[in-house]
Write a structure and sequence with these properties.
By secondary structure, this protein is mainly beta. The protein is built from 4 helices and 32 strands. Strands 10, 11, 12, 13, 15, 17, 18 and 20 form an 8-stranded mixed sheet that branches. Strands 24-23-25-30-27-28 form a 6-stranded mixed sheet, with no helix packed on it. The protein is globular and about 60 Å long. It binds CU-O-CU linkage and copper (II) ion (2 copies).
Length: about 550
């Protein structure tokens, strides 16, 4: 059996509504549930995990500087849907099989609301991880409008929880964005692209398949189940449907693209030969729109987002396919990994229902260029090692997730350059929590047989569509990738990691700590910082933020 393409309409995730208010702040409850969901016309319903029983989860639509509260609840079964490797950190045999914790990817939030991998909880909060602090998360939304996503982050099983369906969109909006007159309403559509595999026959027909073992495990035999080096599914899903189609009018659309896959990169094109006009990156609008030529394609690593405008107005009546030709694994490719040359289809109608009055403005936003001169430079190394079962294990700075001390320790309010020297064979999408950063450049490196960098070549500027705020950067093999960030405005411990979820679960993740800085007052305006990025907006609610009163009520004794 093979699945026909473009037979199901693209679903649009519903927008979540608040349950009520706590101290004037909208309060939400989201229950993670195991449900059966129809993912393709010819498949029986598939068992998935969904936020509020939906895969993908409901979309949050929030306003800049209007905080919300979310109580994330685990109503999942006690046994995992997918094979849990008990040799992976945090998933040892004495740990509950099903643990969850929610991370708002891209969000400027305090550490206790960030979804730390050890802040997990089980059904009804019966068991909680060592870093668990409270049940209700506070999201201040004190940052520029953009496309975030929320997804599970439980230590050692993130790849499985996200694969089972625990991911959704989180959109921040503001008045300035509305003034831009971009396509909106039904002409603004979020698209989360994921790859999955299914049992296509037998008594598990229609169920999600996730490999219990690597395809070519090194001898001696690995534990069973065993983490796999990377996962590549043979089926493309968009918004939880297999190879869907979308009927569009011959006019402009705004698509918020998210690569929600575990390991797969996408290089997207439209079969009509038309270009994308990219208006935003992970962290918000670019300074001005960037044309991503059809010839080049739009590259998206796991976790990355691109906010794009597609104009169908010259394509009335056409059937257009969103295609992908990214090598898998990226960038070298392997014949063993299934290709996914087609993602979804756009069916362009003959006529618009009303004239398209939307625009692509020539100026989109203010971007402060962070200055790399006279700031600390931190060298970081992406390395290939093997674990005790001879499995490939990728590390950051040759340290495992829970190894002490914490080595990356920027002071609150300070700017740092982080250099990512990639000594491995693959591109790793490196993600930092809390901050949005800028990509400075990438330079080729020469490494001797002992793994020492002996030469660094001429730096190359980032691509034009990478010159906005980013929270994920592609660190390519045999290159040093340089990024720059202003750390803060909150202090505490946050993860940074590779967003290939199989790598993240298998030690390619490290904590970093934003240290208290007595010389820095986050409530004071920083020279040069654009207003919509300002740190001060995160403290405008002081002295009586709900966040702080919340601390008094909770068991959290920490001070920050
Ligand atoms: Cu999207 Cu730490 O993750
Ligand atoms: Cu994140
Ligand atoms: Cu990686």
């Amino acid at each position: 059996m093979s699945l026909d393409k473009f037979v199901d309409a693209l679903p649009l995730p519903s927008v979540i509504k608040a349950k009520g208010k706590h101290n004037g702040i909208p309060y939400h409850e989201v229950a993670m549930k195991q449900v059966q969901q129809k993912l393709h016309r010819d498949l029986p319903p598939t068992t998935v995990w969904g936020y509020n029983g939906l895969y993908p989860g409901p979309t949050f639509e929030v306003r800049r500087n209007h905080p919300i509260l979310v109580k994330w609840e685990n109503h999942l079964p006690f046994e995992h849907l997918l094979p849990v490797d008990r040799t992976v950190h945090g998933a040892e045999p004495d740990q509950p099989s099903v643990r969850t914790v929610v991370h708002l990817h891209g969000g400027r939030v305090r550490p206790e609301n960030d979804g730390y991998p050890e802040a997990w909880f089980t059904k009804n909060f019966k068991n909680t991880g060592p870093k668990f602090l409270h049940e209700v998360y506070y999201y201040p939304n004190c940052q520029r409008p953009t496309t975030f996503w929320y997804h599970d982050h439980a230590v050692g099983i993130t790849r499985l929880n996200v694969y089972a369906g625990l991911a959704g969109f989180y959109l921040i909006r503001d008045e300035a964005e509305e003034m831009l007159n971009l396509p909106r309403g039904k002409y603004e559509i979020p698209l989360v692209i994921q790859d999955r595999s299914f049992y296509l026959s037998g008594d598990r027909q229609g169920e999600l398949f996730y490999p219990p073992l690597p395809e070519q495990p090194p001898p001696p035999p690995p534990p069973n189940p065993s983490v796999v080096p990377e996962f590549f599914g043979d089926t493309a899903l968009v918004n939880g449907k297999v190879w869907p189609f979308l009927e569009v009018e011959p006019r402009k659309y705004r698509f918020r693209l998210l690569n929600g896959s575990n390991s797969r990169f996408y290089r997207l094109r439209l079969s009509s030969g038309q270009d994308f006009v990219q208006i935003g990156t992970d962290g918000g609008f670019l300074e001005s729109p960037v044309v991503v030529l059809n010839r080049d394609g739009l590259l998206l690593a796991p976790g990355e987002r691109a906010d794009v405008i597609v104009d169908f107005s010259n394509h009335a009546g056409q059937q257009i396919i969103l295609t992908n030709d990214a090598p898998t694994p990226f960038p070298t490719g392997s014949p063993d990994a299934p290709a996914l040359p087609e993602i979804m289809q756009f069916l362009v109608r003959e006529k618009v229902s009303k004239p398209d009055k939307s625009e692509i403005p020539s100026t989109l936003s203010c971007i402060e260029r962070l200055d790399p001169n006279n700031v600390p430079v931190r060298q970081n190394f992406l390395l290939e090692r093997t674990d005790e079962f001879h499995r490939l294990k990728l590390l950051l700075n040759d340290m495992e997730w829970d190894e002490l001390p914490i080595t990356e320790t920027p002071y609150n309010g300070t700017v740092e350059v982080w250099e990512l020297y990639n000594l491995t064979a693959d591109t790793h999408p490196i993600h930092l929590h809390l901050v949005q950063f800028q990509i400075l450049n990438r330079a080729p490196i020469t490494v001797d047989e002992n793994g020492n960098v002996i030469d660094v070549g001429t730096p190359v500027d980032p691509d034009p569509n990478e010159r906005g705020w980013k929270d994920i950067v592609r660190a390519n093999p045999a290159e040093v990738t340089r990024i720059i960030a202003r750390f803060g405005p909150f202090t505490g411990i946050y993860p940074w990691h590779c967003h290939i979820l199989e790598h993240e679960d298998h030690e390619m993740m490290r904590p970093y700590e934003v240290l208290d800085n007595p010389n820095f007052d986050p409530t004071q305006v920083i020279q040069g910082q654009c207003p919509d990025d300002s740190f001060t907006q995160c403290f405008d609610c002081l002295p009586d933020c709900w966040d702080d009163s919340f601390h008094d009520e909770s068991s959290d004794e920490s001070s920050d």
